[in-house]
Amino acid sequence: AEKAARKLRSNDPSFSGLSLKHVGFSVTEARVIARALAVNTTLQALILDSTALGDEGVEIIVEGLRGNTTL
Question: What is the C-alpha separation between 5 and 8, in angstroms, rounded?
Fold first, then answer.
């Protein structure tokens, strides 16, 4: 999660898609990704299917996406 968050925060234009398919996340890791999503301006695709986020994790990711202007 931290590696993906660093890439998101860097706003590297070559990093336009993030697949977290089949990745298990803790609530803490979901918060790390959500904070990075909120400041990212280059991501164009986020794949979360088959991710074991749970209700709380999904709510955290949604909050991060509220600040994102490109997805």
Answer: 5
